[in-house]
Amino acid sequence: MSDYGHPLTFGAFLTPGNAEPGRVVGLAMLAEQVGFDLVTFQDHPYQPAFLDTWTLMSFVAARTGSVRLAANVTNLPLRPPAVLARSVASLDLLSGGRVELGLGAGAFWEAIEAMGGRRLSPGQGVRALAEAIDVIRQVWDVDARGGVRVDGEFHRVVGAKRGPAPAHDVGIWLGAYKPRMLALTGQRADGWLPSLSYLQPGDLDRGNTIIDDAARQAGRDPADVRRLLNITGRFAAVGRGPLDGPAEQWAEELADLALSDGISTFVLGSDDPEDLRRFAAEVAPAVRELVAGERAADTVPGGTGGARTATGGTPGGTRAGVPTSATAGSPGGSGRLAGAGAFAVVPTPDDGVRRSAIRVWDETTRPTGPAPDPARTYTPHDQAGAQHLVDVHDGLRAELTRLYDLVEQVGAGLVDAGTARSHINTMTIRQNKWTLGTYCESYCRAVTTHHTLEDRGIFPHLRHGDARLAPVLDRLEQEHHAIHDVLERVDRALVAFVSVSDGMAELRAAVDLLSDTLLSHLAYEERELVEPIARLGLN
């Protein structure tokens, strides 16, 4: 079993069809709005029914602001590596560091030959890919002396000037299946990107073994190689097979792939907007919770996780206005919890700011739990579970900030200057309203999913472990129901927003009320539960 401890990320794998050029762009924008970390596109330059992938990525980069982009995977035989290196670096600079590089040795050789490429055997393809990685990394290494020099069997660069360097450390991910490609991945690459549909049972374990062994022989840590996976499936009310069933089944199966096979990036192959929304709103948050809970329980001293590594549940999460505390279970933690000691997980304080005049509940009537025992000490294992609650809440706070950004973008004018021509203005307004509605719907679903997990799992365990917590848990459950009503108010405001000429005031008011209730509730829950969770565990 292998869990390399990487933060979990989720991506979309879109078809770059050119019959409706705007459709794939709209799907990429939707993926960003609903919270995907990554959007990828097939790269088949010989396919006349497809848009050119690098042109498409440049266009999408200009229409998005946070999501990362990659070809899945780049067709190396038709893209000379020195030119590709500069293309990647240029788009990374223009997009603010949002480009990664998926690479493949090549396939569909007749079509490649028809486009002027050279047919290669499998062995030649691996050697050509290794040379290409040399070329690309040298082009990006602007601090090295002299020009780029690779006198290879397939790629020859003799003194080309270096640069530009990308804006960030671009990952090179290889689409690999056979032993030689897997070994190259371990020796030279930053990620392994196969497709689940091409794998047989046991292939992930065998591939990890080859990659890990090759990495060690090259003097690398196997954890330097991220494990990504293209997946496809079907959402259904009843489970009928792997990734064919309800969102809860998807979440459990992907969490198992993360914990058992080290997969930390799941890339959903679908051009269905509903699939993208549901995956982002229901599957991804549940996978994060399941994996973070297992890591917190199993990977600290005294745990049973073996190779598993404890990490926070929400990569990059920060609390609204408050830095994430550096504790066990948080990426980048300072390690101050190396041994048992005083309780050090910091609940997020309520800043007291209220945007709405409406009060859903009386905060002064909230009960408090038992005072912590000042003489008690807490192990890193104890505190990792408590930190997990803060990490999950950080994700909800970050999403709320993004929701506000979307509302303000719509209120500020809906369209950018480049698309302000009158004959498309109305269509763009409709698209922005629909996208905002989709995101609000997805965010509301994520909040509800989190509350359901607490009500059905964590709260009964805490209630059984310490009866003194009952008044607090009762109140938190009541507030969950109240927040559900507030989410319904957001839904009603969205209906009004897309149905009338000016529904912005009602929408802003509804989101303000959501912000007040949710942030207040999360702060109260952390204040009352982080210590009991450390004391009693997460179940």
Descriptive labels:
9-stranded parallel β-sheet; alpha/beta; globular; Four Helix Bundle (Hemerythrin (Met), subunit A); 2 domains; TIM Barrel; 13 strands; 13 helices; 539 residues
Summarize the structure in words.
Helices cover 50% and strands 9% of the residues. Helix 8 (247-261) packs across helix 9, helix 10 (380-412) runs antiparallel to helix 11 (422-465) and helix 10 (380-412) runs antiparallel to helix 13. The strands form three sheets. A nine-stranded parallel sheet has the order 3-2-1-13-10-9-8-5-4, with helices on one face. It has a two-stranded antiparallel ribbon with strand order 6-7. The protein has helices at residues 21-34, 53-63, 81-95, 109-114, 122-140, 179-188, 203-217, 247-261, 273-298, 380-412, 422-465, 470-499, 504-536; strands at 9-14, 38-41, 68-71, 74-75, 101-104, 148-151, 156-160, 172-174, 191-192, 226-231, 234-235, 244-245, 263-269. It is α/β, with parallel strands linked by helices. The protein has two domains: 9-296, Luciferase-like domain (TIM Barrel, Alpha-Beta Barrel), CATH 3.20.20; 381-536, Four Helix Bundle (Hemerythrin (Met), subunit A) (Up-down Bundle).
